Amino acid sequence: MTQEKIRIFDTTLRDGEQSPGCSMHLDEKIKMARQLEQLGVDIIEAGFPIASEGDFNAVRAVSAECQNATIAALCRTVEGDIYRAAEALKGAKHSRIHTFVATSDIHLEYKLKKTRAEVLAMTRNAVRTAKGLADEVEFSAEDATRSDVDFLCEIFGVAVEEGATTINVPDTVGYTLPTEYSGLIRTVKERVVGDRDVTISVHCHNDLGLAVANSLAAVEAGARQVECTINGIGERAGNASLEEFVMACVVRADRMPFANNIDTTEIYRTSSLLTSIISFGVQPNKAIVGRNAFAHEAGIHQHGVLSNPLCYEIMTPESVGIMKNDIVLGKHSGRHALTARYEELGFTFGQDEIADIYTRFVALADKKKNIYEQDLIAIVNERPQAQLYAA
Ligand code: KIV
Ligand code: ZN
């Protein structure tokens, strides 16, 4: 039986990049985009072209670079934004204009100062304009989870009528709960999509720590695109973490019988690359990619894992691309080996930096038998300079 597919829409370069400490230069965005393709994401949201010259250039460069992924550019439901996005996407092999407007009464009254009728008209015009300018159009109803459900369905209906093939139901402020969100997705599916070929997308923020749980609940209810970021970076508490969502689907395939294109063995490399670019890493106990995610400290756990890893491991480190070093790095390793390993992970350092890192590495190797890539990344993040950046 062929499994239904979940499209992975990565917004590390847009929603992720717009959060504090996460800005990236053009060459770094291109490097990330290459790695995201390697990871197998279906859609890369590369920026918000009207927002800045830098975002415009990033969307243009990523469009020229990527051959497999669809490249998305964000824009408001405003003609100027849409033309700018289309211009930036010109070189893309597969392009998507992603247009959004807020739909909750609180956003309409205090932010947009518009009536529902005005927002409906803007949506109609935006999707109609975008339709002729890119391969696909996605429409997002910002703050969907705090919007009146009748109005939400009405506006999605307009977007679909005008040719949007993906409708996104963002939990913009991370407010919803899993059962509530799955109910909303079912309503949109029944009242808007029916038997039309339209994909329901979800985009969850993590203000209550529920972004991944909400995304999973939405998929069970019929969503077939999940918007997420590497390491869960994004506005405020971040977006749904790509690695957590994907591994939940892999590990719990019994309950989540869906396919996706992600090569999970590229997860750790992608996470490390992002860490090497932005100003902070992930917390040690972060699921999937944290330094302690596969560490077993308690004696009873160590005994269990040694007898059979399945006692305490629901997935292997190797399945997400965390390899024990082939060239064993230990306290007798030289700076060259260490520098080379860091370069493989995407880090380059000056002479002074490597001297400091090497001292820290030897101190750790004195205490710890196996040095993993996670340890190397932790050494970088624990330096006083790194903490200064992260502050
Ligand atoms: O959180 C949000 O609502 C967004 C939209 C632009 C999709 O990022
Ligand atoms: Zn968002």
Average pLDDT, rounded to a whole number, is 92
**Count of helical segments?**
16
CATH class of the largest domain: Alpha Beta
> How many distinct domains?
2
> Which structural class do you get from the secondary structure elements?
alpha/beta
Strand content range: 5-15%
**SSE series:** EEHHEHEHEHHEHEHEHEHEHHHHHH
Per CATH, the architecture of the largest domain is Alpha-Beta Barrel
Residue stretches low in confidence (pLDDT < 50, at least 5 long) are 387-391
In short:
The protein is α/β, with parallel strands linked by helices.
Explain what this protein looks like in three dimensions.
This protein is of the alpha/beta class. The chain has two domains: about 5-275, TIM Barrel (Alpha-Beta Barrel); about 295-390, no CATH class. The protein is about 45% helix and about 15% strand. The chain has 16 helices and ten strands. Helix 8 links the parallel strand 7 and strand 8 (about 200-205). Residues about 385-390 have low confidence and may be disordered. It binds 3-methyl-2-oxobutanoic acid (KIV) and zinc ion. Zinc ion binds next to loops. The site of zinc ion (ZN) has 6 residues, from loops.
